[in-house]
Structures are given as C-alpha cells and as structure tokens.
Amino acid sequence: MAYDQLDTRQIHVQPLAARTSKHHLDEIRVDPETCPLDPGSMAPAIAQTTAAIRQARERGAAVILAYGAHLVRNGLGPIITRLLETGWITHLATNGAGTIHDWEYAYGGRSEEDVRAHVAAGCFGTWDETGRYIHLAVLSGAIAGMGYGEALGRFIAEDGCELPERTALRATLAAWAKNPSDDPLMPARAELLQAMVRHDLAAGFHPVAHPHKDFSLTAAAYRARVPLTVHPGIGYDIISNHPMFNGAAIGRAAQVDFQTFAGTLEQLDGGVVLSVGSAIMGPQVLSLIHI
Predict the structure, then answer these.
(1) Which of 22, 69, 106, 214 ranks highest by number of CB atoms within 10 Å?
(2) What is the average per-residue pLDDT within 155-178?
(3) CA 81, 82, 87: angle at the middle one, nearest 5?
(4) Distance CA 8, CA 38 (A)
C-alpha cells in the first residue's frame, strides 16, 4: 500500500539571518582563563574525577565526554577545546542538536530559536543554511569514509568542502555496476550524485565562511584529531525540515560514528566516562583543565 508522504522539497525554508536567535557568542562564551575556580561543595567529586582522569591517561585508557546541546548553548566549547588540546579527553560523543548549535555559532555567531513561537507559526527549524550546509558537509565527507562528526568538523575548519565532478561519480558507479564489489563507499557516492543533481550543486569547492570557528568544538576535535562522534535520530533534529534532508546520508554517517564510538569503548578498561547533560555545574566541573 502506498501511504501519503511528506515531500521535503516542498518545505519552505528561510534564511538563517531572518531568524531571531536568543543568544550571541559574546553572551555565552566561557573563557578557560577566567572560568570559576571555586568548586564549593563539589570539590570532593571534582578531586575524585580529576584523579580518575589522571590515572586513565597514565595507563593509556580512554576518557570519553558525552554531552548534549546544553553544553554548547552555555558557552563551554572553549573549555572542552582546551581539554582536547592538552590530551585530557580522548573522545567526544554528542547528539544531533549538539552539532547543530555548534555549527550555527561558528557560522553566524548566534543560535537557539524561540521554539514556542516558531512552532505556533509553523516555521520551527525551517532555516536554510543550517540544513543545507550540515547535509553538504555530511554528504561530501561520506565519500572519504568520514562519519558525521569528522565531516562537519572538517567543513567548519576548512570553511567549506570540495565536490567531485558528476561525470567522475557516474563513471565510478557505472564501473561498479558492471563488476560489483564490497565497496562501502559506493552508496555514499550514489547519494552525493543524487543530491548534486536534485539540488543543482556544482562540482568544485563550495566556500562557506565560519567567522567564529574558534568557538566550534566540532572543528576543534577535527584539528586535534580527536574523534567526535554524533549519534542523531531521524526526524527530531531540525535539519530534517529541509529540502536536502537525506536519511540515508545521516544514517550512514551515524553508523560510521557508532562504530568509531564502539572502537573507543574497547579502550575503556580503566578509563573514564563523563556525561554533561546540563550546564548547571558546567564551568566548575569542567575546570578540569587545571589538573
């Protein structure tokens, strides 16, 4: 039976600049050099965590930080970046929202829309650049075997991405069809070609400036060569409200990241897992940069 389906190409998206976002970087950014150092009643817990991280790194075990959007929205990206650069964290894991806010801040310096107002107006999450460029990053990264986090980190760090010629993609796909092999990148090439045709994307470098990339935790992980894995869901991130939405591309990137995350778990014996879901105690706890 054929069921009615949403045609995402009919979704009307608006420029991100037209959205009133709640916060600017200048209002939320936490400076690692000036963040609070008095842990108060949390001092024993912080001391215990610090000791566990020291021991984990001394034995070469993994230190994983799992976080959601609140960490980014509360300006803690620079603190985590310092932890990456100094080797205290070996793996970052987040959800789709964690990278969406990170990208919006890197791109425009602002993020977080008024959910109540925009749901009522029927425009929640319908912002062109957010959906377009995150998909472009994921699609282009996939043909190099990258997962969601690495692809988006590269896109931000390098201010855009390179797309191959359509003829080259067609030739590769045609050769594979004549002599199929176990090539995990072939579906990614087909999805990219489809996106280039459907959305009239030209070959070559697509420049997308990120003036605030120094705030981006996703870009920082890419530069530091620390895995940042993204574990999204299909349909509940705002990038699903975009004509370029591609569940196959998002799912494939998430699969790569899941497998990378599982690989890190194999290094967790004697390691540490930190989970930051809210930033109520964020600056104090994450002052671990001073360990």
Answers:
(1) 106
(2) 97
(3) 100
(4) 50
Q: Residue 37: pLDDT band by 50, 70, 90 thresholds?
A: low
User: Please, which residues have CB within 8 angstroms of residue 195's CB and are 6 or more apart in sequence?
Assistant: 135, 139, 201, 244, 246, 249
Is residue 63 within 8 A of residue 18, CB to CB? The reply is: no
Q: State the chain's mean pLDDT as an integer.
A: 91
HEC sequence for the chain: CCCCCCCHHHCCCECHHHCCCCEEHHHHCCCCCCCCCCCHHHHHHHHHHHHHHHHHHHCCCCEEEEECHHHHHCCCHHHHHHHHHCCCCCEEEECHHHHHHHHHHHHHCEECCCHHHHHHHCCCCCEHHHHHHHHHHHHHHHCCCCCHHHHHHHHHHCCEEEECCHHHHHHHHHHHHHCCCCCCCHHHHHHHHHHHHHCCCCCEEEECCCCCHHHCHHHHHHHHCCCEEECCCCCCCHHHCCCCCCHHHHHHHHHHHHHHHHHHHCCCCCCEEEEECCCCCHHHHHHHHHC
Backbone φ and ψ of 255, nearest 5°: -65, -45
241: number of CA atoms within 13 Å, CB side? Answer: 17
| Region 143-171 average pLDDT | 98
Find how far residue 174's CA is from the centre of its chain. Answer: 32
**In 105-134, which positions are buried (b, 16+ CB within 10 angstroms) versus exposed (e)?**
bbbbbbbbbeeeebeeeebbbbbbbbbbbb
Q: Above 80 in pLDDT, residue 27?
A: yes
The answer, yes or no, to whether residue 225 has pLDDT greater than 90, is: yes
pTM of the model: 0.91
